[in-house]
Specification:
313 residues, mainly alpha, Annexin V, domain 1, 0% strand, Annexin_sf, Annexin, phosphatidylserine binding, annexin
Length: 313
């Protein structure tokens, strides 16, 4: 496509001021936040041809802080970014369980398969092995059940199996609220293997057995990272975009926004379902995501987030 190629060349040329001492952040934001991942890849290719320098290295040298993290995140595909974030969460002495839980428990079959493949390409290691080495107990069992190929989640079916729905709802109740101590293995098995539409019906049916809904039962039965993981799963099964809207709202509630969380969600979902997340945000918090970002962030980082957000609902 000659016309598109010329446009990409022009844009890569616009980024050449990165080589100067004075950095034009606005141009970087205008170009890189308003293009698709594929277009950014083409711009990077042309930039290297013109400038004889890798664009990612140039951006690292030119930017800093939260803006740097956001722009560098955009230079990766969604799967590469998720894989990168997972690796970073398991680096060093402490594990960033919050990131692990958010990514592993909120991604669907296809997304997890892509992340695993890309993780292997980028780091020459299996995601399962790194997760197993960095976590323990039932928390590790749950995460591994979600990422392992052997426990693929069922694909949605047009046939509603009411008998199976009832069986799973009763099994969840009998493994938790009904007994003393929780049979976590049964919970893991059902929540990691059944299709999402099936589980939605299971949680509805569950209420006819238990005095508590599934989320209340989780809070009563398990604690810590395992509790957070199960709650994330249930919230994503019920409404994945609302889960992300809640995470963004929570991250921007405090005086200083949790920029790492905001960046991760906006960058990882901007080409997936950010428009739907915006809709859920407005519906539940009676104000737009755009307005919330404006109030809780500042400077060039704010400009980049607002550009990715795309509009004030």
């Amino acid at each position: 496509k000659p016309q598109q190629h010329n446009f990409i060349c022009l844009e890569s040329d616009s980024l050449r001021p990165l080589q100067r001492t004075c950095v034009d952040e606005q141009t970087i934001i205008d170009i890189l936040t308003r293009r698709s991942c594929e277009q950014r890849r083409e711009i990077a290719f042309e930039y290297e041809r013109f400038a004889k320098k890798d664009l990612v290295s140039a951006l690292k040298g030119a930017l800093s802080g939260s803006l740097e993290a956001l722009i560098l995140g955009l230079m990766k595909s969604t799967a590469q970014y998720d894989a990168w974030e997972l690796k970073a969460s398991m680096k060093g002495l402490g594990t960033d369980e919050e990131t692990l839980i958010e990514i592993v428990c909120s991604r669907n079959n296809e997304e997890l398969a892509d992340i695993k493949r890309v993780y292997k390409e980028m780091f020459k290691k299996d995601l399962e092995k790194d997760v197993a080495g960095d976590t323990s107990g039932n928390f590790a069992k749950l995460l591994l059940a979600l990422v392992q190929v052997g426990t693929r989640r069922d694909e949605p079916s047009n046939v509603v199996d009411y008998e199976k729905i009832d069986e799973d709802a009763r099994a969840l109740y009998e493994a938790g609220v009904k007994r003393k101590g929780t049979d976590v293995v049964t919970w893991i098995e059902i929540m990691s293997q059944r299709s999402v539409p099936h589980l939605q019906k299971v949680f509805e049916r569950y209420k006819s057995y238990s005095p508590y809904d599934m989320k209340e039962s989780i809070r009563k039965e398990v604690k810590g990272d395992l509790e957070k993981s199960f709650l994330t799963l249930v919230e994503c099964f019920e409404n994945r975009q609302l889960y992300f809207a809640n995470r963004l709202n929570e991250a921007m509630k405090s005086k200083g926004a949790k920029e790492k969380v905001v960046t991760r969600i906006i960058v990882s979902r901007c080409e997936v379902d950010l428009i739907k997340i915006r809709t859920e945000f407005k519906k539940h918090f009676k104000r737009s995501l755009y307005q919330t970002i404006t109030e809780h962030t500042k400077g060039d980082y704010q400009k980049a987030l607002l550009s990715l957000c795309g509009g004030d609902d």
